[in-house]
Amino acid sequence: MGRRAGTCHVGRVMRRLGPSDYRDMPWKNGGGVTRELLKLPHPSEPARFLARLSIASVAASGPFSVFPGIERTILVLEGAGMALSLGGAPEVVLDPRSPPFVFPGEAETHCRLLAGPVRDFNLMVERALAEATLEVVHLAPGGTRAVAGTGSLVLHGVAGRAELSGTPLAQEETLWLEAPGSRVLRSDEGATVISIHLTRRG
């Protein structure tokens, strides 16, 4: 998966990815471009995925692509924000201060930009096979946060520099761990990190 990929531990897997490992891909509906950070494969259907993390640059208002069976989580990183309308329901306004917003990928979703382009973080998960939680972790200088899990843990550096039990995580880098166990996320200078815990069903 690129020059940074692949450190194996006893019974565990860790991958550290950076911008050279990411892929720029057109939206499914052709309306924009997404930078794919990480894609975990579907266990039986090569054309689908188990989970996918990406950052999209949204330059104009318009419809979102439709992803049947996918649970989506979106988080605005930069820009004034956007308003999402799902299937004719009242708009949901999102900006960089908003919590992560979860919605079904099969819903007809329209995006209205509030004042210019935005960048947003996207998490997509095959609903029938897995569930995921996304949290934005703000670490003050010298701050720490315990992270643990038996499934998959993905961390993405948004700002500053952090480390996970000695493994560095810089801005725009991504760490992916399987069966991470108990670990400590810390930062000497302060950092903002997106933390995702993925659990497979069954």
TrEMBL record:
<dbReference type="InterPro" id="IPR014710">
    <property type="entry name" value="RmlC-like_jellyroll"/>
</dbReference>
<protein>
    <submittedName>
        <fullName>HutD family protein</fullName>
    </submittedName>
</protein>
<dbReference type="Pfam" id="PF05962">
    <property type="entry name" value="HutD"/>
</dbReference>
<dbReference type="InterPro" id="IPR010282">
    <property type="entry name" value="Uncharacterised_HutD/Ves"/>
</dbReference>
<dbReference type="InterPro" id="IPR011051">
    <property type="entry name" value="RmlC_Cupin_sf"/>
</dbReference>
